[in-house]
């Protein structure tokens, strides 16, 4: 959906973009500009800095998804409860980035509702599924009609198969976990898991080494890789060692 067109620039965004009559400094560049984006915390950001801020967060997919607001950004200073509610504000980015924003926003909606994206390169249709079947068929006419595995996202090329290869591999991994459990206990078993879900937003998270305190780039939560809960100071002493 395109932004509204008005003879007065930004007239449709007047609830957020304000004339800087009080000559407030931009909280990013510290200059006083005529037009600024005003957050609920009363911090001002000039339009140039807001555009750069939005594109930077978009490139790293660090917009926040809120069920009541949508895909948005809060104050650059990190103030809480400052997500912008008028999402058309992001048309201040150039056209190509605004299109990316809308695509990412739709994808985040699907992920938030535990959905999947069709892995076919020319499709990418978002599917929110009620059933728990591993075999998923992208529906026509909105999608491509191809079937794929809900777990590993590979195309289901042989309709005669009742189980995907990734499930066989998973069974083999479970046998390996049992073996390591007998030798080293639960800590070794936990460390073998490469992917886990963030307890804050359920995004799949990969860990290939380093500290067990994980900072989610989507929702910002810091959580413990071992207990899979929000990180607490006693995590280190109770089950890291």
UniProtKB/TrEMBL annotation:
Does the entry feature the keyword Repeat, yes or no? Answer: yes
Domain called RING-type: residue spans: 22-241
Catalytically driven reaction(s): [E2 ubiquitin-conjugating enzyme]-S-ubiquitinyl-L-cysteine + [acceptor protein]-L-lysine = [E2 ubiquitin-conjugating enzyme]-L-cysteine + [acceptor protein]-N(6)-ubiquitinyl-L-lysine
State the source organism's domain of life.
Answer: Eukaryota
Cite a GO CC annotation.
Answer: cytosol
Q: Biological process (GO) annotations?
A: protein ubiquitination
**Membrane-spanning ranges:** none
Q: What is its EC number?
A: 2.3.2.31
Specify the signal sequence span: none
| Keyword Transferase recorded | yes
Keyword tags:
Metal-binding, Repeat, Transferase, Ubl conjugation pathway, Zinc, Zinc-finger
- Mind telling me which InterPro entries this protein's record contains? E3_UB_ligase_RBR (IPR031127), Parkin (IPR003977), Parkin-like_IBR (IPR054694), TRIAD_supradom (IPR044066), Znf-RING_14 (IPR041170), Znf_RING/FYVE/PHD (IPR013083)
- Mind telling me which Pfam families this protein's record contains? IBR_2, zf-RING_14
Protein name in the entry: RBR-type E3 ubiquitin transferase
Species source reads: Rotaria socialis
What lineage does UniProt assign to this protein's organism? Eukaryota, Metazoa, Spiralia, Gnathifera, Rotifera
